[in-house]
Design a protein that fits this description.
Layout lengths: L1 E7 L16 E5 L5 H7 L7 E6 L2 E3 L10 E6 L22 E3 L4 H9 L4 E2 L6 H10 L3 E4 L2 H4 L7 E3 L5 H11 L19 E3 L2 H4 L5 H6 L4 E3 L5 E2 L3 H14 L3
Helix pairs in contact: 2-5
Amino acid sequence: MAFAYFHFYAELNDFIPPPKRQVRIDHCFAERTSIKDMIESLGVPHPEVDCIEVNGKPVDFSYIVQDGDTINVFPISATAMTTPTMSVRPKPLRVIRFVLDIHLGKLMTSLRLLGFDTLYRNDYEDEELARISSTQERILLTRDKGLLMRSIVTYGYYVRNTDPQHQIVEVLRRFDLFKSVLPFKRCLRCNGLLEPVAKEFILDQLPENVQLHTNEFHRCQNCEQIYWKGSHYERLQQFIDLVMGNG
C-alpha cells in the first residue's frame, strides 16, 4: 500500500470533512492514479484548484501520484503563496458568462439584474449543464460539488453561501466583477438584452396608469417583455446599491 500526504489550503477546506481541515491528510492508495482524480476523491472539485505542488515542484493534473509524495493544493485565492508558472487554471475567459443549476434561481435574477449573461432553467439535467458550460465556455455556478467534478467542466465555482443576497456578493468578489456591473441592461425573464422602445409602439400593452404617467420604456429583444421605472424599480435600485456597497 502506498501513501501520499496532502495539504489543502484556504477555501479548499470547505470540501474536506471537518476533522481533516487545515491538517496533513495521509492518503493511502493502491492503483496508479492521476493527481486530479486523487484530489477529487478527497472531495475537492478540479475547477476550484489553481495550482498543485508535489515535493516542492509544480505539476499539472496529469501527474501520476507516487508513494511518499507530499502534495500541496492551492485555490485561486492563495495565488500570493505560489508563482504564476504553477497554475493549472485554464486561460481566462474573454467574456464572463454563466450557467446556473436549479438551486440558484434567485442568484440568476441578481446576475441578470446586474447585466451578466446568465443561463438558467429549472429542468436542466446535470449532463446538460456540464455540456453547456463546456461548449459555450460559461462558468458553471452550482451548489452541487459532484457536478463540478464532471470531466468536461473547465470553468466552474461552488457557491458557498445559501442566502441569495450573500451569494451575489460572493460571486462578484470571486470573479472580480464589481467594475463590470451594468444594471437594467438584460431581461430578468429570458436573459435577452433590453433596448429603448417608443411609447406609441407599445401603448396598447401598458396599464392605464402607466400610460398616463410614464414615458421611458425598454423592451427585451428576445421575448418582448416591457420594462419601465415603476415601484419595483426603486426596490431593485436599493438592492443594487446594497450589493455594490459590499464591493
